[in-house]
Amino acid sequence: GIIAGSVQLFFAWRVYVLSRNIFIVAAILLCSCVGFFGALGTTIAVRIIPAYADFHKFESIVIVSLAGGACANVLIVTSLVLHLKNRKNEFPTTSDTIDRIIRLTMQTGLITMLCAVIALATFLSMRRDSYLIFHVPLPKLYTNSLMSSLNSRGGWRYNMSSELGGHYSSAQRGVSAPDLL
């Protein structure tokens, strides 16, 4: 809930910085808030009705929470990949940087998105407790996705300068990895 919402809000900000598309960002924010408040509602419901046998009484809140988080993840990954793919151009350095960002988005965001979607599908189609296999690791996946994204930014600048001989600044090359993020 809290970790997922925080990371999704960070990536919503990143989508806004990249695309300036307020509609997709609003959709991500809406889904993220639905997921967050659904998780908060689930926490409150578990506190009020602690018996696992009565779990069916608040399963709709769990469905809303899982669906909101999964929807936000799908929107984040697809909007980032599609927008970055459209920004590629004939300049090799810029295209290489964009390829690295797309690869990072696919490596981190896709795993988190798939895990959230599978948790929702499992909850809807199978025994109610089996979804936890995919839901419990989600906070760690969100944290890893965020940390991987933040840690990789310095590596792009280092890799680009070493590929170009190491003596050109970002401004001289005309591209800066943080500007793309």
Describe this structure in words.
With 181 residues, this protein is an all-alpha fold. It has helices spanning 2-19, 22-48, 59-86, 92-125, 132-135, 138-163, 170-173, 177-180.
In short:
With 181 residues, the chain is mostly helical.
List the defining traits of the structure above.
181 residues
Give a short account of the largest sheet.
Answer: none
**Residue runs with pLDDT of under 50 for 5 or more positions:** 160-180
Number of continuous helical runs: 8
Structural class: mainly alpha
What is the N-to-C order of secondary-structure elements (H for helix, E for strand)? Answer: HHHHHHHH
Give the overall shape, derived from the CA principal axes. elongated
Amount of beta strand: under 5%
Radius of gyration: 19 Å
Note the gap between the termini: 25 Å
Helix content: over 70%
Q: In total, how many beta strands?
A: 0
Q: What average pLDDT do the residues reach?
A: 80
Write the layout of secondary structure elements.
Elements: H1 2-19, H2 22-48, H3 59-86, H4 92-125, H5 132-135, H6 138-163, H7 170-173, H8 177-180
Helix pairs in contact: 1-2, 1-3, 1-6, 2-3, 3-4, 4-6
